[in-house]
Amino acid sequence: MKRSIGLFGLPLLVLWMAPAFAVIETYEFSDPALEQRYHDLSAELRCPKCQNQNIADSNAPIAQDLRGLLYKQLEAGAGDEQIKQYMVDRYGEFVLYRPRFGGATTILWLAPALLLALGVLIAAMTLRGRRKVTRNKSDELSDDQRKRLDELMAKADQNK
Amino acid sequence: MPPRLKLFLPLILFAILALFLLRGLELDPKELPSALIDRPLPEFSLPALGEEKTLNRVSVTGKAALFNVWATWCVSCRVEHPYLQQLADNGVPIYGINYKDENAAALKWLDELGNPYLANIVDAQGTLGLDLGVYGAPETYLVDAQGVIRYRHVGVVDDRVWKTLLEPIYQQLLQGGSP
Question: Distance from the CA of B66 to the CA of which of A79, A136, B29, B117 falls in 20 to 30 A?
Fold first, then answer.
């Protein structure tokens, strides 16, 4: 008797607990295109509370609220830019994982290009310097060196 | 560039980098700048806690005041509560925004721990919180006499926070100037 409870009880318990694991709520969309936009936007909006997660991944209450809001706005027919602006107005540029160009984010956008240019510049200068060095190190003697060599040779001949 | 100076280039670059990193040590990434600084308090129309009336933007502005976002489920709110009471006793006007809370629990809290608030805005759905950009209680906003948000502090308000951050701005607001 005890054994049979264990056998049937455990699967039943797991079934009963299943809703507890389903922490992310589901929304019914009137249009599959809206659902796609919901997924795209919720992956691109950053949770203000748990800062290294987007609102799609986060279980923070604020992320739940923002997902609900996103759903409502999409169903109401708001455009992507409009929704993003709504979020930025309240939580700042911080909520966008892909920040827009302008203002404080200018340096963020331009820094990679500037650093690349700097790297290319340094590489070019180094290569040019090296070429100069190899040219000087050629086997040919310069006029001065040849003159000095001749003098030394003459001196050596005299001393013989 | 003289070759001797060139030798110091890595050291100079390192020093600049070190300065940035040093500054980074002092910054708290969890403290987000509010998007609403120097913007008016959002419009709202919400019930008052324990009173038969509706509060809106006009009814809670007119003089410089603190707006404290709190809830009974928020542990840190209990920590800061005695200090808010102390501020209120010293004549600082504080409005409460009871954020996503239950009225009964909130009234019980105020009954037991004391009520530092002039009035409490019941934001059960978190709509005002959303418009304010609240992302976790407690948060405290400094709003001037014109109803413009001047400062936002995320976290517990204690003696240090009040003396170093909030009070200087509050005093400026009292004198009618803008910080």
Answer: B29
Interchain CB contact of B135 with A (< 8 Å): yes
Q: Which residues of B126-144 are buried (b: 16+ CB within 10 A; e: fewer)?
A: bbbbbbbbbbbbbbbbbbb
A2-100 CATH choice from 3.40.50.1820, 3.30.70.3270, 2.40.70.10, 1.10.8.640: 1.10.8.640
A63: closest chain B residue by CA: B135
Architecture of domain B37-174: 3-Layer(aba) Sandwich (3.40)
Contact A49 B132 (CB under 8 A): no
* Segments in chain B below pLDDT 50: none
Counting Cα atoms < 13 Å in the Cβ hemisphere of B108 gives 7
Q: What is the pLDDT of residues A53-103, one digit of tens each?
A: 899 888 888 888 899 999 999 999 888 999 999 999 998 888 898 888 877
